[in-house]
């Protein structure tokens, strides 16, 4: 298992080009199951999760051409997403809606919990039932089938991101009109809807909490450029913030990170929004802030760990409070940050972070994707050398992070074991 070795204490400065968003790419690639025509991307992210998804889709009958970056599924070969493939990546659940829409049946292994929470899929399943599917759970698998999917009205208990996408991808080929309420408004959901519209789907209201869909008989192919990854974007800004640096990230899709940029500004950073980019100029000492994670447009849970790392070295005359409301166990980075000298108290879903004068380099263990990013950010500031173990978590969603950090002046190397 690879690790990253970082010598902290360097001020980071420069421009970073942000690659395509993993959490947009995963559902977008699954759209290839909805049509027999080619679905093509100009900037597919080169991260481990997309690799896992390609293997799963191939199993289902989707051919991928490296040369043209096209996915094509002339016919579905199998409607079963096996445990072996789903356990490697929870997002595999995203094949459920498209398989059911095209083949009227699907068998998908239950994704199960993960390091950050239980992560049930009950809302996905209730919504599919509302569309007319019969759902049975047996031997760890979801068995979904339908004579036909029919438009319906369904209110989601919570605006789940992949749940919303699963339901939309099922409803676009259903008979008649569907109205989903309390849907997720994340930019990734909006992008999937825009791509579906380009494929011939009839969708209105995406970006709001109520989506209206008129079912169509078939969908066309797609040629698409995926939006920049807003979570990688905020991660690099956090690297600038903690090191007292100056970082400009591009391309920026306006209004996708307002809650985060506002917190950086409250922390004392100067934020300059330009056309297509954001420049962050950090002060020598950050101010403590309070925030709570929430569905979009609130503060993203996927950025909580990175901002917490920054706040570990904020002005010690106050304290920051961070409340995690989306996942029940998303403070895995806390114990590792403490090992680097951070002063963090956790009670339930509330973390109180008191800034310390300095962090010290240590060997720390990454436990999930965003926790890995948090430890890297802390290591960039810490005195001495840190080793971040198990960076395979990081490789699931960050592309060439160490190269990008080196270009900004960081001293980072990967050790392959
Ligand atoms: N939930 C339910 N029932 C459901 C679905 C969700 O109770 O049927 C709960 C979850 O347990 C959780 C909350 O609702 O407590 C939110 O979960 P959501 O379904 O929105 O998360 P997700 O769709 O599984 C996506 C991202 C996550 C990101 C969350 C929240 C992808 C592939 N994953 O997960 O990304 O944290 O939305 O924004 O899009 C990451 O990239 O590091 C990551 C974990």
Describe the structure.
By secondary structure, the chain is of the alpha/beta class. It has two domains: 3-18 and 228-415, Enolpyruvate transferase domain (UDP-n-acetylglucosamine1-carboxyvinyl-transferase, Chain); 22-224, Enolpyruvate transferase domain (UDP-n-acetylglucosamine1-carboxyvinyl-transferase, Chain, Alpha-beta prism), CATH 3.65.10. It is built from 14 helices and 24 strands. The chain has helices at 22-30, 48-60, 83-86, 96-103, 122-130, 161-171, 187-198, 230-242, 258-266, 304-311, 332-339, 369-381, 392-395, 401-407; strands at 3-7, 13-17, 39-41, 63-65, 70-72, 80-81, 105-109, 134-138, 141-145, 153-155, 177-181, 202-204, 210-214, 222-224, 246-250, 270-274, 277-281, 290-292, 319-323, 343-347, 350-354, 363-365, 385-389, 411-415. The strands form six sheets. The protein has a four-stranded mixed beta sheet, covered by helices on one side. Strands 2-15-17-16 form a four-stranded mixed beta sheet, covered by helices on one side. A four-stranded mixed beta sheet has the order 4-5-3-14, with helices on one face. It is elongated and about 65 Å long. The N and C termini lie close together (5 Å). The model has no long low-confidence stretch (mean pLDDT 96). Bound molecules: uridine-diphosphate-2(N-acetylglucosaminyl) butyric acid. Uridine-diphosphate-2(N-acetylglucosaminyl) butyric acid is lined by residues 23, 26, 91, 117-124, 158, 160-163, 301-302, 326-327, 369-370, 397.
